[in-house]
Write a structure and sequence with these properties.
Length: about 700
């Protein structure tokens, strides 16, 4: 009975409020309100802004978040979502979100209208109960879309730094905002620098690092001089540390070694994340450095790469911006002067440790007239500069009953690692590789044999330079296994000898990458990139080659000029000249730009390992393409997808690698043959038909 009486009382109260709203609606002076709103929106906005900032200092706030089971529910602010909350308030925001965060906004508007100079408005608000008047006004603002005037005012006047400042005064969130405030302040300083194009002093692009007193230990030495080993031994002793490598394979090697030596270490590359419990150390590729993170110690390997036109900007960013009190740089002698200039420009201190090769490096005078494959010996590394030539050389060796490992860039890194292990353990006696072997890989190589001395660098075919020859040849000789490292060449013995012992020209420049914040300027992304290229460099810095990135941005803009999406999408590694993978890249962008989510399962199914017959002649190439597609899917999912899909992608990639293992273990790569008669062709033969078939076809054409 009491319950029924309560229900009736509630119903009567609800009906009374509805009636109150109807009466207020009839008395609402719309024409006068519209005129007042248009004239005084700045004053109203200011009062609402003051109310919102006051609420930020005192109230609790919740945002949408996902539980461990994927269910969306309201979650109070914590370290993981407070940045998202600040960006929502100071950036693009829907009116419904505004009133959700600040339900008291109608009250602030009502309070302002009580002081209005218009008699009709004052009469209305004074004679109408606040609850009814507030409800009616906010409903009217939504209906007439005048609420957007308020949203626009707040977006223009409520800065992200203001939100953080006010939240910092809220007893509930003051500790959460401290770290984020530092990042925002750094971003603000960075944006101010970018607004004036590129600053004269590039070190100001890294304000967080400039606030630290950093010390560099520069390890200068040739390959096989133990410089990286010494730096890594010091890293193991640090409370926390990061190792930055040029290749995934090297990051993986150090990740394995650190964990094997009892130092928990995670690995983060663009294609994989392995997070070890209790880890305070990390092995990463250089591009994955987060300059907001702070470490006790950092090791930057192959630092002479600062001069590389494609990737050098990542090393420059690491040297100028890594937040660590102690930084070890490992580099070849030609980089010493430039590295010192960079460190001094930061106002940091340094000391230099010089390293000598542990084994001498000499030309093999007994192999001046090297013949292939007759002169191949165990412990040889045979160097060529394309995937096709690696396969052709390896197939010819296998046809002569010589077991070999193969290493080149297109192979998945776990396959390269396993091939290297097979050579290191003696399961194979020879390794056939591209110049990927020259970047830090420590293998028991007795002799390096240059089967080629010309390489395609992405633009032109050109002869090897002295630095490249020294880097690759330096892999010969392994302390404790081979007392001397030997070098020879298939044809150009004297050329290789001259380049190997030539005095190296010092590196005189470091490449600079375009700051991501520079892309936030108005205009097409491709135009901004081109503008960056036009800004003159200063001191010993130079612009890296971003022609490929410009080409990608233009291709995306032809599909849809969604600038915010393009800024995110160009972070995903891609090659616009790769006809196998780039169409998938473009298709995924097209679907996202249309508001659709690409079907990951469909792509995974299309490129899975089970689709490939391992006995097929093209199986290895198809699997390499599939692995590259899976790398793209991983990078795409890290930015746009769901975390749950990552394990599926990695599982599929492992199956691809396992099938490649099976193919390579058979030691039965396909020899090059004439496309007409099937006759075996030498690996170095430039044409796809034998001379006899060529002559026959020429005779047929004449007759």
């Amino acid at each position: 009975m009491a319950s029924k009486k309560y229900q009736n009382r509630f119903a009567r109260k609800k009906a009374k409020f509805k009636n109150e709203i109807r009466n207020a609606d009839a008395a609402f002076p719309r024409q006068e309100f519209d005129a007042y709103w248009d004239k005084h929106i700045a004053e109203i906005g200011r009062d609402v802004l003051l109310f919102c900032r006051s609420a930020l200092r005192t109230e609790r706030f919740h945002v949408d978040g996902k539980t461990a089971y994927g269910k969306v529910q309201k979650q109070e602010l914590y370290r993981g979502n407070i940045e998202k909350f600040c960006k929502q308030l100071s950036g693009k925001m829907h009116p419904s979100l505004l009133t959700e965060f600040f339900p008291g906004i109608p009250h602030a508007i009502y309070e302002h209208l009580l002081e209005a100079q218009d008699p009709a408005i004052v009469t209305f608000v004074s004679k109408t109960r606040e609850k009814a008047a507030s409800r009616l006004i906010i409903k009217y603002l939504r209906k007439t879309r005048k609420i957007w005037d308020l949203v626009t005012y707040l977006q223009d006047n409520l800065m992200e730094e203001d939100v953080l400042t006010d939240l910092g005064k809220n007893p509930r969130y003051k500790y959460l905002t401290k770290k984020l405030m530092q990042a925002i302040q750094a971003q603000k300083l960075l944006y101010e620098n970018i607004q004036t194009s590129t600053p004269d002093d590039l070190t100001t692009l890294f304000p967080l690092a400039r606030q630290m007193k950093r010390k560099f230990i520069i390890h200068i030495g040739p390959t096989n001089s133990g410089k990286t080993h010494q730096a890594m031994e010091e890293l193991k002793k640090a409370g926390s540390g990061i190792y930055l490598a040029p290749l995934r394979l090297l990051a993986y090697e150090q990740y394995e070694r650190m964990n094997k030596d009892g130092v928990p270490c995670s690995m983060i590359t663009g294609e994989e994340r392995i997070l070890m419990p209790g880890s305070y150390h990390q092995a990463s590729t250089i591009e994955m450095l987060d300059i907001k993170e702070e470490w006790d110690m950092a090791v930057i390997d192959e630092a002479q790469m600062v001069a590389d036109e494609q990737r050098g900007g990542s090393w420059t960013t690491a040297i100028l911006g890594v937040r660590s009190k102690l930084i070890h740089l490992c580099a070849s002698p030609d980089a010493e002067d430039t590295l010192i200039q960079m460190i001094e420009s930061c106002g940091d201190t340094y000391e230099i440790t010089y390293h000598e090769r542990m084994t001498p490096l000499v030309m093999d005078e007994n192999a001046v007239d090297f013949s292939f494959p007759e002169a191949v010996q165990n412990g040889d590394a045979l160097i060529v500069f394309s995937r096709r030539d690696v396969h052709s050389v390896a197939a010819e060796l296998q046809d002569n009953d010589i077991k070999c490992s193969i290493i080149y860039g297109a192979l998945p890194y776990d396959v390269r690692h396993r091939e290297a292990e097979k050579f290191a353990s003696g399961e194979t006696g020879v390794v056939v590789a591209t110049d990927a072997i020259g970047m830090g890989m420590n293998l028991p190589i007795r002799r390096v044999v240059f089967l080629q001395t010309v390489k395609y660098d992405g633009k032109d075919e050109r002869p090897l330079n002295s630095s490249e020859v020294k880097q690759i040849a330096g892999r010969a000789g392994r302390y404790g296994i081979y007392d001397t490292g030997y070098v020879t060449s298939y044809y150009d013995y004297e050329i290789i000898k001259k380049l190997l012992f030539k005095k190296t020209v010092p590196i005189d420049r470091a490449m600079v990458s375009i700051p991501e914040e520079f892309l936030l300027k108005d205009g097409k992304v491709s135009t901004i990139l081109e503008l960056w290229n036009q800004i003159p460099a200063n001191d010993f810095y130079d612009k890296g080659d971003i022609s490929e990135k410009i080409k990608i941005a233009k291709a995306l803009e032809q599909i849809a000029d969604d600038r915010e999406l393009i800024r995110k999408f160009i972070r995903i590694p891609a090659s616009p000249d790769n006809k196998d993978t780039f169409p998938v890249y473009l298709e995924y962008y097209k679907e996202l730009s249309e508001g659709k989510m690409p079907d990951l399962r469909k792509t995974i199914k299309a490129y899975r390992a089970d689709n490939v017959d391992e006995d097929d002649k093209e199986a290895l190439q198809v699997l390499e393409i599939s692995s590259a597609i899976y790398d793209f899917l991983y990078s795409f999912t890290r930015i746009f997808g769901e975390e749950e899909a990552l394990s599926v992608i990695l599982s599929g990639k492992r199956k691809i690698s396992e099938k490649i293992f099976t193919i390579l273990d058979k030691q039965n790569l396909s020899l090059r043959t004439c496309i007409y008669c099937g006759k075996k062709l030498k690996w170095s033969f430039k044409f796809n038909m034998c001379q006899e078939c060529y002559r026959k076809r020429q005779l047929l054409r004449r007759h």
